[in-house]
Amino acid sequence: MFCFETALKLQYWASLVYGYREGLPATTPTTRPGTLEVGMRLFPLEQSEMLWEKQGDTHVLIAWAGNRIVIAFRGRASLANVYTDLQAWRTSHPASVGHAWLGTHAMVLTDLCHRAFHGWLHGELCAFDIQQQLADTFKLAVCCMPFGAPRTGNHAFARAYDKVVPNTWHIINEQDAVAHKGKCMMYKRAGPRVLINPRGDLIVRPSLVEHSLRRMPGGSSVKQHLLTSYRKSMLAVINAQSTQKRAKSGYEAGKGARHAAGASRQNLKGRARPATVV
């Protein structure tokens, strides 16, 4: 079941992974999107570590406490990076399984310049591997929420992923150009979609008709792929709970969500690309 409160908290972490730097005081007022102190209180968490793989420019922020862990991967950090995301090949995952011509060979996207996997694919593969590797040893409840992720694999990979990590929700902002790419090239999205827009609409598991009506011909937008656009649409959903659009008990829930989103409400000027949180 999709939980908007969880999505809101994870969206905060998706923003946090862009601005957080270890060694800087978490309570110092900054223009970066959020502070680690606030993020740690959302779940709550006790310890954290930022990892940076320089060759592939891969950033991941990990925080944990007891039996709970949050892993946030940074996606692309500029418009030029976003345009790179619009061009990609596929690679086998895992290697030598099935037959590519028959569509039974599980394949996923890889960067044209071999700069490793990006935030959205990192998150999905991380969730997939954690569930596969540790499910026999630990009782797991893995949740993955990619923000603005494209279709990351073919139909065989999507089927395998859905069986392993069913609690995956792809949050897509209106006409996001990157999130809507790849369908005509045999790519398949694993997991259900959640559509949001700046008008405060929220549609969970949209029907084909609902999805088509919200896709304008030639209306793809790179700007709506930016993290700021996702943040504004998430806040618009909260604000809509004070209008006729509100869901049942939405007004009271909206007041609580506004309080949780307060820190990010003041930081809407960044231009980072959405990330994936596990």
Task: Calculate the terminal CA-CA distance, rounded to whole Å.
Answer: 16 Å
Number of helices: 8
Largest sheet: 5 strands, antiparallel
Give the count of structural domains. Answer: 1
- Provide mean pLDDT, rounded: 75
**What is the structural class?**
alpha+beta
The Rg value, from CA coordinates, equals 18 Å
Can you tell me the residue ranges where pLDDT is under 50 for at least 5 consecutive residues?
25-31, 95-104, 109-118, 263-272
- CATH topology heading: Rossmann fold
CATH class category = Alpha Beta
Portion of residues in beta strands equals 15-25%
Percentage of residues assigned to helices: 25-40%
Order of helices and strands: HHEEEHEEHEHEEEHHHE
Tell me the CATH architecture. 3-Layer(aba) Sandwich
Task: Tell me how many strands there are.
Answer: 10
| Strand order, largest beta sheet | 1-2-3-10-6
Protein name: Fungal lipase-type domain-containing protein
InterPro entries: AB_hydrolase_fold, Fungal_lipase-type, Sec_MonoDiacylglyc_Lipase
Pfam families: Lipase_3 (PF01764)
Organism: [Myrmecia] bisecta
Describe this structure in words.
The protein has 278 residues and is α+β, with helices and mostly antiparallel strands. The protein has one domain (4-277): Rossmann fold (3-Layer(aba) Sandwich). It contains 8 helices and 10 strands. It is globular, with a radius of gyration of 18 Å. Pfam families: Lipase_3. It comes from [Myrmecia] bisecta. One of its GO terms (biological process) is lipid metabolic process.
Secondary-structure map:
Layout: H1 4-19, H2 36-41, E1 47-53, E2 58-65, E3 68-73, H3 79-85, E4 88-92, E5 107-111, H4 119-134, E6 145-146, H5 155-164, E7 170-173, E8 193-196, E9 202-204, H6 208-213, H7 227-239, H8 250-265, E10 276-277
Helix pairs in contact: 1-7, 1-8, 7-8
